Automatic annotation (TrEMBL):
Belongs to the paraoxonase family. GO terms for molecular function: arylesterase activity; metal ion binding. It is an enzyme of class 3 (hydrolase). Keywords: Calcium, Disulfide bond, Glycoprotein, Hydrolase, Metal-binding, Signal. This is Paraoxonase. Disulfide bonds join C40-C360. It comes from the Eukaryota. Ca(2+) 2 binds at D169. The active site is at H111. Ca(2+) 1 binds at E51, D52, I113, N168, N224, D271, N272. InterPro entries: 6-blade_b-propeller_TolB-like, Arylesterase, Serum_paraoxonase/arylesterase. Its cofactor is Ca(2+).
Amino acid sequence: MTWRMFVLSLLLALVFRHVFIVMKSLGFHKTVYNHRPGECTLVPGISNGSEDLELLSDGLVLISSGYPTLKNRVASSPRGHIYAFDLNDDDVKVKRLKITGNYDPDDFRPHGISSFEDLDTGRTFVLIVNHLVNDGVIDVIEIFELHRQSMTLKFIRTVNDHLMKSINDVVAVSKDTFYFTNDGRSLSPGIRLIEQLLRFRTGGIFYCDVTSCDQVGEPLLEPNGIQLSRDQRYVIVSQPFEERIQIYEREDWRLKTNKPIQSIHVGTAPDNVFVDDEGDLWLGCHPVGFRTLLHMEDTKHIAPSQVIRIKFNQSDEPYQSFDLEEIYSEDGLNISMSSSAVYYNNRLLVGTVRTGLLHCMVKAI
């Protein structure tokens, strides 16, 4: 009897611990305060999300718009677009990029976006996560070339691999090689919910070249945004369900070890990651989980937005000393569910999963 009671007590303790972790991640206990780094305005022309932002070296930002939630990955869902925003231009406006080449733009529903600027040739290649729905629900990486004069994306090729299950983000190493994250295994909304509630580690980091893709590192719980450090020595991955940023050292295309050299708890759910010229990280975050889930179901429910900067201090060991700074925060009345942020020349763009795009003139941070 004593042995049975011990086992039962242990099982109950494990269940209560799991429930506590899940409830804590939903953020019922959190309060969001509004503050801005300067004057902020909504950017006209964006209404179907600006889930990921990619800053090019000259201040041009490419914007991924039209992300479909799992339940909306059907042929009748609206197609997505890529927009451009010039942070050198005083006009707060976007331009829609036209896709050219042998490509069906009606089956374009973008998510993560990355770029590779070839300094030798001056060409810019753009890699985009695409959620195909017309011929079955599958995830692929589309590779385009950006033509700046005409502001068009010329289609080059589609990369599809059996390891591409539920792609969230991509980061280019070259025009032909890249890392991507699977945030889970199933594209079924019901099964994915089970994966999330039970905190199954069904996601991971993957590397692709012109011949094949391989998993690098150990399985992870819902890895999301992925970036490279400026010197390409480190892979940086966000884990919103863990409220962490993981930093791994590279060795060739592999990770040096399965364990990160630094794991930073940020106290909020980080989505996409931007690395600025100083090597600091800018995170679009979801501070209150349950309101994020409600907003994903129906945009009439507002969700708070937040931008965090991880500012690294000078140290003999990289990424070991840092300060966490909240740059932007709001309750969701202006923009809901911030997912990305880029900073350039005292200007801040904040992207969202399903609604608009915010531009801020930064006065003080």
